């Protein structure tokens, strides 16, 4: 193996491919349980940023190669970039433009994001699953926030995401006690969308992606934004935001198609416009 090929295998990669109007992002570092190297994080950010302005896309799928989803950030690779001890404040300067940026993009992008999880989803990997709009997991998958076990405090949005998804008590169970949560329990708590048999994961995920990609893309994006806005707004503010969103969505071709389908008593054929 050449030096370049060996380096690529060690760093892993993120592969992006088009499947019609669906963007599929694969965390491809199975030998390290798809832990994210600095180069993979950069590719992840680039892919999501490009997707955010691509009008031909209607849904995003994120999954891991091999037996696991993602075991988090590869802190060894990240901290050994120069072979020297990082400067004081390195995390404060760097992480907002790295791991945190991925979570922000997933949260704000006006496209539905679906994650399918096998094996382990730990640390940033767990938070990727939480930040997705819908996460479908194999029934033997495990969700873990390992921060306390490693002796440092939570990051990458976990203290914001977990309480909103499952309540304070269960969030503390994961973040302070470091308990690992199985897929069925995660689904029961509302942490993820659905747990399915491992053999059914691909079918269940593709069925959901097709349903989302066939929807009124602009209206779905505005609804996603309004839901997230409402997490820190008053009722009056949320309703005001809804009015602006309705004003926009009612000007789309998909809105006209929805009305026509209703009048004609048929299933609408949305085109994401």
Automatic annotation (TrEMBL):
InterPro entries: ClpP/crotonase-like_dom_sf (IPR029045), Enoyl-CoA_hydra/iso (IPR001753), Enoyl-CoA_hydra_C (IPR014748)
Similarity comment: family membership: Belongs to the enoyl-CoA hydratase/isomerase family.
The protein's name in its UniProt record: Enoyl-CoA hydratase-related protein
